Amino acid sequence: PPLSTPSKRAILSRIALIFDPLGLLGPTTVIAKIIMQDLWRLKIDWDESLPLDVNTKWKRYEAELPMLRNIFIPRRVIALDDYVKLEIHGFADASEIAYGACVYVRVTDANGKHSTRLLCSKGRVAPLKALSIPRLELCAALLLAQLIDKVLKCLTVKIDSVYLWTDSTIVLAWLQSCSRTWTTFVANRVGEIQQLTTPHHWHHVSSQDNPADLYSRGVTPTSLLQSQLWWSGPTWLNLDKGSWPQFPFVINKQEIPEYKATAITTIATKQPFDIFERYSNFLKLTRVVAYIFRFFNNLMRKIKPSRSYPLQPGADNSVSPDEINHATQVLVKLVQRLHFPKELELLIKQQDLNKSSPIIRLNPFVDESGVLRVGGRLKLS
Q1: String of DSSP letters for 222-283
Q2: Which of 91, 123, 283, 381 could anchor a disulfide with 215, C-beta 3.0 to 4.6 Å?
Q3: Last residue of a domain, one of 180, 213, 243
Q4: Matching InterPro entries, A to Z (predicted)?
């Protein structure tokens, strides 16, 4: 009988009368849970009268409850005799008010006939603290992974394949990447899902073919009774796999939310150039540098054979005078850049030196080879 004076206590008592351990009536019972959550959100006391809108919602739902008596569920889940293949299909979905997961058993007999039936489901109302839809979809995927794990541990028959379906492309993108890529909320749930399942189990399904959508928004007992999608899954599950519709999805990596911010600290330090400290003999140093440039030129000849290289080795591959002169010039320019960087920069730009420069009295200039030289008559020669 309907409640004469609905209250939070009376509604909770009425909800407890619905015995549904497998969640077969989940899309209907979730409506009652949503009403209870509304009462908690409004901070209604246990025996306080309900607000008009909540009372109307409950009355409408309560009037539908007798229809549950008309729901008959076959005890036998594996509907075909002498089946040769058994698959598990799980679906997950979420909305702003609830999220859920449902599991189906699909069997195939020797003649290629297929049959799919609902095995169990589980759902929850969305938390009072508002979450984004992708996060709620991820919670639904985690719920499905946990439910599948329990189902596989309980079943004593051989399972040939497991398929997990979600209509959230963002969740699929999260699951295909390392959990450490994402923020803490997403990373923790992705990590647990990846422990319970593998990425190749997960597939994309359209929203209209997702039976978990009924759980996420709730339906009346009358609608649930007539829903072939809920009791048997999408119609294409009764077809051969080659006839299943394809649900391709493409998502731009830059559009995937919840990337974890990575802090990178760059410290610039000046490392002393100690090549001059390694050799006590300048001639030996120039020979080493000459061999370095010869090695570099040999590599460049292989990369660009058409290019001309004026530096040629001496007889018996010894260091030629041209190579020594080139190495000496490089070392001189290197020393000048280490000790007079500001002066070189200003002179190359044809600007005057600062009066505080220690070489300003030498009237320096930069020749055509880039070497800093003392001015005077040499500059005019």
Answers
A1: HHHHT-HHHHH--GGGGS-GGGSPP------GGG---BPP-------------HHHH-S-HH
A2: 123
A3: 243
A4: Retrotrans_Pao (IPR008042)
